């Protein structure tokens, strides 16, 4: 049974690639690439949040909202549910929050030498200092969240619940219940428009430097 639409799968693996690229570009001081990847990530996340309001059943933000009782039941359950279960939903929301915080602080961050985020000129120096510090600290929390996510995937795999193949093919043969999926082209169109706007404005200079 198909449980993930095309944009959700694209978002997942594109986000993984961007986070890896953002980490190594920052470590190597390749800031033009770092900024371009940041704008791609921002377009990805913004589109994902919009698709979470109007997209497929398993893409909906509302499908990620569960109470503590549902989380406890999900941890004990021996069967898979379409999309993210209640426990996994909490991790997705944490990822969204951490990545959004990383992106917003990056827009206001500076190294006080050569590199300024596009919003630095619009906020006070105190805000810039705070954003720059939090931008570095938050990535450590993001790495911890990624580690917990990978650990959960391994634990589920050991329990016979294979999650990774479904995020590649969109299908999970262990599930029987039908899921309402929507065509993904509107999400890809939104992503293309947002990315084009970001690269044409804030991303123009770093993109030109790369090219």
Annotation keywords:
211 residues; single chain; globular; Fumarate Reductase Cytochrome B subunit; mainly alpha
Structural account:
By secondary structure, the chain is an all-alpha fold. It has one domain: Fumarate Reductase Cytochrome B subunit. The chain is 67% helix and 0% strand. It has eight helices and no strands. The chain has helices at 6-28, 31-54, 68-76, 86-107, 125-158, 164-169, 185-200, 204-210. Helix 1 runs antiparallel to helix 2, helix 2 (31-54) crosses helix 8 and helix 4 packs antiparallel against helix 5. The relative contact order is 0.18. The model has no long low-confidence stretch (mean pLDDT 89).
CATH fold topology = Fumarate Reductase Cytochrome B subunit
Rounded average pLDDT? 89
What global shape is seen?
globular
Query: How far apart are the first and last residues' alpha carbons, in Å?
Result: 43 Å
Which structural class is indicated by helix and strand composition? mainly alpha
Number of helices: 8
Fraction of residues in helices? 55-70%
CATH architecture: Up-down Bundle
Would you summarize the structure shown here?
This protein has helices spanning 6-28, 31-54, 68-76, 86-107, 125-158, 164-169, 185-200, 204-210. The chain is mostly helical.
Question: In terms of topology, how is this protein built?
Answer:
Layout: H1 6-28, H2 31-54, H3 68-76, H4 86-107, H5 125-158, H6 164-169, H7 185-200, H8 204-210
Helix pairs in contact: 1-2, 2-4, 2-7, 2-8, 3-4, 4-5
